[in-house]
Specification:
Length: about 550
């Protein structure tokens, strides 16, 4: 998701900290359908009716915050914010008509709206969970503190709204007059609304200057709670048409709907490459030298010798990998997707990976590792933000029939299983990788080779699919970020590239593969659903979706994180 500069005060810091949660609003059926231009009028009317209640709650919160403010300039600033909302309420009917819609009938508040309005009212009244605020706000400081808390509860809503609508506006053709929600989107992308959001943040920064660390923590909690309530508000908006999100809702277990999720491990699930971690275990667990000068039982090298050997292996791997990429990308770029050309190129990578693994085995760097050391290292392995939470939600979702498969070049399946064990039952995770040969819980230095090339990954992928139940509707999602994932990404119904993955993209573009940001791809798919009347996920050949985080995948497949 794109960045947005909102200053260096507490408002900017909190937005930067919690901005990633905006994906759970962006990927709601409401906003995906709205961005596609085919959100039903009834759904939009329902939203408008609930939004009026929120505007009234904001106006009331501002009124209470103004009463609490001690400084005359602060009171005036809050009063101006309240006047802005009151003007919006007065002109609301004419704005709705200007956007091209009939006025909605008045509707009762939904549970999500009630929770949001109650939260705003309670905060502005000084009733803050876990915070000791006197029943009577006696001193000017106590009152000013509540004003700051109130602005902390309001600020994320306005920033989130401006941010998401700009994300959507970037997908629209400025000359397209057929998009029925374009005027509404443009309104919330206007300089006027951006200035309003910035004034709230600027005032929050001002009111927070004299607060203690504990009081700033309260603002952070309120800010985050408001973000979560905003997610719940938009997630609860009723959608009467078919929507492509969340993906899990399109699969009905009652009629055999099943989701198979495949992912790579290194640099997709993890923040670091596992080969370097295994080498580091070997280095730090080896003695510097035997006291009597004799060889150890497995004739292991000293720690210093091992580090030197590993550094040389790593340098050679990097150099030959880059040479392999250069030799392929210096050829003429394909004008259209060339699967055959890609497969020929990947054969070079297959030979390269196998030769590199053979050098590692021959060097002896993986000899003498204790299995328990490997498992402990796996448990301490740093996973990408959101990865563990996503896997946990998939495994615990009783309304979804799903299987998770990890396909990895990693040399040790135990490392993967240990790393992901905190996400749930390891037996429910299907790990397909190489293994380290062991005798008496100690590695021999040999690799039991199962997956060393893109072709072997693809074969494992297809074998898994061939063994599943043929009845019902099945969808496959593959998540990866390395060259070795390319064939599986293309074979899956939905191929998702994690992170920047510069080498994968460079190679893919060489053979005509298109890389489309997932959100814009979903908007296009939503248009297709309405126009064609089908949500068939078998993509145009040679198209992959891109994401920057696991939160995007979570929002796409499962919806809200709450």
């Amino acid at each position: 998701m794109g960045g947005m500069d909102v200053g260096g005060g507490i408002a900017g810091k909190l937005w930067n900290k919690f901005r990633s949660e905006s994906v759970f609003v962006n990927y709601t059926p409401f906003f995906v359908c709205l961005a596609a231009g085919n959100l039903s009028a009834d759904s939009f009317h329902h939203y408008i009716s609930q939004h009026v209640h929120l505007l009234n709650a904001f106006a009331h919160a501002y009124e209470l915050a103004e009463e609490c403010a001690d400084d005359d300039e602060d009171k005036k600033a809050i009063r101006n914010l309240r006047k802005y909302v009151q003007a919006k309420l007065k002109s609301h009917d004419s704005l709705v008509r200007e956007w091209g819609f009939e006025l909605p009938e008045e509707r009762s508040l939904t549970n999500a709206t009630v929770k949001y309005t109650d939260f705003l009212s309670a905060t502005a009244s000084g009733r803050i969970e876990g915070e000791r605020v006197p029943g009577k706000l006696a001193t000017p400081f106590e009152k000013t503190k509540v004003s700051a808390y109130t602005l902390g509860a309001i600020a994320p809503c306005m920033r989130l709204f401006a941010f998401i609508n700009k994300e959507i506006q970037a997908l629209l053709d400025p000359n397209d007059s057929t998009h029925i929600y374009k005027k509404w989107i443009d309104h919330y992308c206007s300089e006027n609304f951006e200035a309003y959001a910035f004034r709230i943040e600027e005032l929050l920064d001002t009111l927070s200057i004299s607060l203690t660390g504990e009081e700033l923590d309260v603002i952070e909690k309120l800010y985050h709670q408001s973000m979560r309530l905003e997610v719940d508000f938009f997630s609860s908006q009723p959608i009467i048409q078919e929507a492509v999100v969340p993906l899990s809702h399109t699969l009905d277990p009652a009629v055999g709907g099943e989701l198979s999720i495949f992912c790579d491990f290194d640099l997709t699930c993890t923040a670091f490459d596992s080969s370097a971690i295994l080498a580091e275990i070997a280095i730090i667990t080896r003695p510097k030298a035997d006291p009597d000068g004799s060889e150890t039982q497995l004739a292991r090298m000293s720690s210093a010798d091992l580090r030197s050997t590993w550094d040389a292996l790593s340098a050679q791997y990097t150099e030959e990998f880059e040479q392999c990429v250069e030799s392929i990308t210096t050829t003429e770029t394909a004008e259209t997707f060339s699967y055959e050309g890609l497969c020929e190129a990947l054969e070079q990578f297959a030979h390269f990976e196998k030769a590199a693994n053979s050098r590692v085995v021959h060097s002896g760097v993986l000899k003498g590792l204790n299995q328990e050391d490997i498992k402990r290292a796996g448990q301490r392995l740093i996973l990408q933000d959101g990865c563990k939470g996503f896997i946990q939600k998939i495994m615990k979702n009783e309304n979804l029939t799903a299987a998770i498969h990890v396909l990895s070049y990693c040399w040790c399946g135990d490392l993967i299983r240990s790393a992901l064990s905190s996400a749930g039952d390891v037996k429910a995770l299907n790990v397909h990788s190489n293994e380290l040969s062991c005798e008496d819980s100690t590695t021999t230095g040999e690799i039991i080779k199962k997956l060393e090339s893109p072709m072997e990954k693809l074969q494992a992928f297809n074998n898994i699919l061939n063994n599943r139940d043929k009845d019902g509707r099945h969808l496959t999602v593959y998540i990866g970020g390395s060259v070795g994932d390319l064939l599986c990404l293309l074979e899956a119904d939905i191929g998702i590239v994690m992170g920047s993955s510069p080498t994968l993209r460079r190679l893919g573009e060489q053979f005509g593969i298109s890389f489309v940001p997932l959100f814009s791809g979903l908007v296009a798919k939503q248009r297709e659903v309405v126009e064609v009347g089908s949500s068939n996920w078998k993509r145009l050949s040679g198209t992959l979706y891109t994401v920057s985080s696991w939160d995007e995948i979570h929002a796409f497949i499962l919806g809200s994180s709450s």
